[in-house]
From TrEMBL:
It holds the Pfam family Epimerase. It comes from the Eukaryota. GO terms for molecular function: carboxy-lyase activity. This is NAD-dependent epimerase/dehydratase domain-containing protein. Gene3D superfamilies: NAD(P)-binding Rossmann-like Domain. CDD domains: Arna_like_SDR_e (cd05257).
Length: 382
């Protein structure tokens, strides 16, 4: 039976160029494309580890997916692959906060300068582009600048982030943590300008803390020993090692978390409904799953205690942002997405509660890493 879009039109198979398509988000998107659609994927990345299973010749979709080991900084094949596709999805980025203020140059190059050729090739060849940005482009909330005793401090209008209304408020230049947000904002503005002046068909995605299996890495196991992944993997690493979960500056920052499977369904709607998605910027998150980092840590300890015997006595410890991330770190207070535009255009809403997505994710983390960590702890390298 033919698959139909939201307007009842038959969906034609597409060839999709996925840049950075073998990472956390890309691996889940590839999986959905192969198992639930007839689209083909040209995957570009520096490693195929997270999509190895999908590339096996025995899979029924093996003729619909191909992998190219390419660093887009310096490979001339990129232009040809974009031109041979119907749609390009750019997921490539340095997106771990620990890198923003310690590797600001790499962050700016990766998230702005390296993306410019992608935009250029899509414009010149009249190819549609779905570009992944970040919720960090909003920066700090208006509410965070109000005095603590101000009558409007509790007004949600000063905290909810809207694609077409909210300003982008970053910290001072010396707070190099904002290099990521600034680079992402600049490439958004370039894409929008190409659409306005040269007719580029684009969609910009602003993810709000998507989490789930295969996210980031566990230091010393499938990533650098001294590496610092994002909060879910950081907390998971502490849980797996039986260590206190480290709360940066007391864990006061608040975030909303969205299950990767829910989020990828939203991306598929963007892919298959271009008339509704072109020219749009979409928040994609779950405003119902808001917690402080301290609450997240406590919930993860509780959930992991049910998954792993003997881990119920785990606790937390406070660390300073300077000690954890280095000089130049800064942060936003809250990130709550307004869902009006994506609901109106695509009819999408997130479904998975935080407790459920943490159970799935921590079960995966435990099954994937616990034995490797146990072995590493029993045979330390001196």
């Amino acid at each position: 039976m033919a698959r139909l879009d939201l307007d009842g039109k038959e969906i034609a198979p597409l060839t999709i160029c996925l840049i950075g398509g073998a990472g956390f988000i890309g691996s889940h998107l590839c999986e959905l494309l192969m198992t639930h659609t007839h689209h083909s994927a040209i995957v570009i990345d520096v490693s195929s580890d997270k999509i190895t299973r999908l590339l096996e010749k025995s899979c029924s979709w093996s003729n619909r997916i191909e992998f190219h080991k390419i660093n887009i900084k310096n490979d001339s094949r990129l232009e040809t692959l974009i031109k041979s596709s119907d749609l390009t999805i750019n997921l490539a980025a340095i997106c771990t906060p620990a890198d923003y203020n310690t590797r600001p140059l790499d962050t700016i190059y990766s998230n702005f300068l390296d993306a410019i050729p992608v935009v250029k090739y899509c414009t010149e060849s009249n190819k549609r582009l779905i570009h992944f940005s970040t919720c960090e482009v909003y920066g700090k909330t208006i509410g965070s600048f109000l005095p603590a005793d101000h009558s409007l401090r509790q007004d949600p209008d000063f905290y909810i982030l809207k694609e077409d209304v909210s300003p982008c408020i970053f910290g001072p230049v010396e707070k190099q943590r904002w290099s990521y947000a600034c680079a992402k904002q600049m490439i958004e503005r370039l894409i929008y300008a190409e659409g306005a002046e040269h007719g580029l068909k684009f969609t910009i995605v602003r993810p709000f803390n998507w989490i789930g299996p295969r996210m980031d890495f566990i230091p010393g196991i499938d990533g650098p020993t001294e590496g610092v992944p994002r909060v879910l993997a950081c907390f998971s690493n502490n849980l797996l090692r039986g260590e206190p979960l480290k709360l940066v500056d007391g864990g006061k920052s608040q975030r909303t978390f969205c299950y990767i499977k829910d989020a990828i369904e939203a991306v598929l709607l963007m892919i298959e409904n271009p008339e509704r998605a072109n020219g749009q910027i979409f928040n994609v998150g779950n405003p119902n799953n808001e917690v402080t980092m301290r609450q997240l840590a406590q919930l993860m300890i509780e959930v992991y205690g049910k998954i792993s015997v003997g881990s119920s006595d785990l606790t937390t410890v406070d660390v300073s942002s300077k000690d954890f991330y280095g000089v130049g770190y800064d942060d936003s207070d809250k990130r709550i997405p307004d869902m009006t535009i994506i609901n109106r255009q695509l009819g999408w809403n997130p479904k998975t509660p935080l407790q459920d997505l943490l159970e799935v994710t921590l079960t995966y983390q435990h099954q994937t890493y616990s034995q490797s960590i146990k072995k590493a702890l029993s045979n330390p390298t001196y």
